[in-house]
Amino acid sequence: TALGPRSYTTLRDEAVKLFNSLQQLELERDPVPLMQGVLQTCLDLPPLVDEIYCQLVKQTTEPPAPGGQGDLHYWQLLTCMSCTFLPSPPVLRFLRFHLDRRSRFPTSEMAKYACFIREALGKTKGRECVPSLEEILVLMRRQEMICTVHCPGAPACSVAISSHTTAEESPLVAFVSPQVARELVSRLGLSQSPNLFALYEQSRRREQPVGSATLLADVLTRFE
C-alpha cells in the first residue's frame, strides 16, 4: 500500500528501513542528510514517530562505545526528533525517564543533550516541515539559528531563533524599539492602521505575510 505523499510501502517495511538507517547512522561522516530523511519519513508517516523514539532510546541505553561517534549521532538525531515531533503520552513518559537517568551525570556531553531534549519537548507542538539542513546542523551543536531580516528604512539585521520561535515571538520585536517602530509607521503612512508589525517571506514566486503562530524554522525550510 502506498502511504503518505512520497513513495512508501507498508508501515512494517518502512520501520525496518528506518532501523537500517539508524544502523548506518553510526558510521556516517556526514549524518545530516540521513537524519533529515528519517525525520521526513516520520513526518509523512506519523505512526512511525513512536517507533523511532523507542529505537533511539534503545540505542542510547548502555551503548558499546559511550560518547563515541555512533552514540553521539543517536543523541543528535534524538535532539532533532524532540524539536519536530511529540511522541504519544506512554512513550513520552518512557523517554523522560530515560533522559532523567542521563541527567545524573551532568558533566557528560550526553547529559547536556538530555537536558536540551527535555526542555525542547516542553515547547514542541508539531511542525509543518522537517528541519532544514542548516537547522539540523545547529541542533547537533545545541545552538540557535541565525536568520537575516530586512527592515523597511533600516539595514538588514541578524536575529537568533530556535526551532520553536514563532513570528509573534521573533527577537525582531525586541530589536525594533518603540521609537523606531513609530518612525517606521509614520514613514510608511500607517498611522491609522492597527497592524504595526509583521514579518514577510519573499521568494522569486511569491511574497506573503508570515502568520503570528507560524514557526520561523518552517519558513526557512521552505526556502531550502
Automatic annotation (TrEMBL):
Signal sequence region: none
InterPro entries named among the record's database cross-references: Actin_motor_Myosin, MyTH4_dom, MyTH4_dom_sf
Which parts of the sequence belong to the MyTH4 domain? 1-140
What Gene3D superfamilies does the database record attribute to this sequence? MyTH4 domain, Phosphatidylinositol 3-kinase Catalytic Subunit, Chain A, domain 1
GO terms for CC? cytoskeleton
Full protein name: MYO10 protein
Q: Which organism is it from?
A: Oceanites oceanicus (Wilson's storm petrel)
Taxonomic path: Eukaryota, Metazoa, Chordata, Craniata, Vertebrata
Write the gene name: Myo10_2
